[in-house]
Amino acid sequence: MAPPPENGLQEGLQDGLVVASHGRHCVVETADGGRRICHPRGKKLDAVVGDTVRWRSARDEGVIETVASRRNLLYRQDEVRSKSFAANLDQVLILVAAEPAFPESLLARALAACEAARIAALIALNKMDLAAPFAEAWARLEPYRAMGYPALRLAAGTGADDEGDFVALQAQLAGCVTLLLGPSGAGKSTLINRLVPGAAAQTGEISRALGAGRHTTTHTRWYWLDAARTAALIDTPGFQAFGLRHIGAARLAACMPDIHAHAGQCRFANCTHTHEPGCDVRAAVEAGAIAASRYRLYGELLREISHS
To answer: Which residue from 5, 7, 207, 222 has the least number of CB within 10 angstroms?
Structure first.
């Protein structure tokens, strides 16, 4: 027999899953599929999409009392603040587009954040119907494919000629909680509408519930991919910046697989891979084993993080 609740503090508490967030407002889904607007109790309690929470009813809304321990949390941090994306993820799908040309710095930053959080990542390049720009963009992804990141080719807007990779994407998403990341203009909304029938209706419903109808792209939301609720896709607002100050200069090389593969062979254990003699990373760049563009990104990120 379960012990009685302590001072009645546990009475009335229900388990739930955070499926949308906008500022301090959350939508919590219950085990029977019902949804309720909730607010975390106190400013120090932070709930993000993907969190398992305990909450209690408060009139027609609810109050989140506790947040369960997380398996992981993906977030970014600049010199001013941190921005959480979602928690308890199985993988991250980073969507970039052939046009407008994707900033490699944003892709590299997102992948480094995934490595820091120990979350698997895959890349999808959209707009394969634009033959010439797509070929150029696919070539730019070669260093990432060489590092072992899965890369898929999509035409999310038309579905033309991408059926093989689209089916592969669906298989990759099955049974997983996947966070969808991408810069503005990559085609995330189009891809979601293709993967999730009725996604537009779900978005409208959540936006009305949050009172955020004018900001439908500024909050994070969860979509079930199957009726059995075994797989989910989490949509996030597009971004144009991705700070990595939470990683720290000493950890940066370990979060970039191509750099990390050579970092352990340097003469000095505390090598920064920028100027020290006997640096195997710089030797690998000169030999072509590390792409020059990737080494430039490493230097850019190291300077940024070191001055935080």
So the answer is: 7
97 and 214 in a common domain: yes
Query: How many CB atoms within 10 Å of residue 270?
Result: 7
Element (H, E) at 296: helix 292-306
Q: Please answer whether residues 44 and 24 qualify as being in contact, where contact means their C-beta atoms are separated by less than 8 angstroms.
A: no
Range of the domain at 194: 73-235
Task: Give the burial string for 179-196 (b: 16+ CB within 10 Å, else e).
Answer: bbbbbeebbbbbbbebbb
Q: Which residues lie closer than 8 Å to 79 by C-beta, 6 or more apart? A: 243, 245, 308
* Distance in angstroms (rounded) separating the CA atoms of residues 63 and 22: 15
The reply to whether the predicted model has a pTM over 0.85 is: yes
Taking Cα atoms as reference points, which of 49, 57, 1 lies closest to residue 26? 49
Residue 239, amino acid: F
Residue of 115, 68, 64, 76 whose CA lies nearest to 92:
115
Closest CA to 186 of 266, 245, 98: 98
**Residue of 116, 135, 131 whose CA lies nearest to 254:** 116
Q: At CA 105, angle to CA 102 and CA 106, rounded to 5?
A: 65
**Tens digits of per-residue pLDDT, 81-117?**
888 999 999 999 999 999 989 999 999 999 999 999 9
101 falls within a domain:
yes
